[in-house]
Amino acid sequence: MTTVTSAELNAALLKAKLGVSAPELHGSLAGYLCAGRGGRAHELLMALALESDAAGAVDDLHALVDSLAADIAGKLRVREPVAPLLPEASLAVRADAMVDWCRGFLGGIGLTGVAVDPQHQAEVATLLADFGHIASMHLESGDDDEAALDDVLDFIGTGVARLHALLVPMVRH
Q1: Torsion from C-alpha of 33, 38, 43, 45, nearest 10 degrees
Q2: In CATH, which superfamily holds the domain spanning 6-167?
Q3: How sure is the predictor about 139, in pLDDT bands with cuts at 50, 70 and 90?
């Protein structure tokens, strides 16, 4: 599978004239898929209210979204961490992108209206609150905070996998 970069996705988003960043869209896709929803690029973008009017610009975007969704869904299926798609940039830019990713993630989950099993409600609420805290951060970082960003990214990856396990339990046969 081809790995999609933040720069490639941002270029396609600009061409399609969508007012969303690559990290935010990736987060929205991850949230939507985490809650058990799915679909091809066109359906996913419609569900996220992100359809473009730019004729001819959506083919590249749809291909990238399909690739990203397949990657995210594959990781969720085997309960692997889902890493946010961040730009290759300075620590401060990546930290801001991580905040945007979490905002998108929460929005993607919110759009699904997923029902939470009552026995998991407290853990789901705690995890969503943690993502909410990250999404509301205003980060001021220096280059010595790389380890802190890595720790938060580790939490995000494993938190997404855990939320998926709680929201979409595997059927046991």
Answers
A1: 10
A2: YgfB uncharacterised protein family PF03695 (1.20.120.740)
A3: low
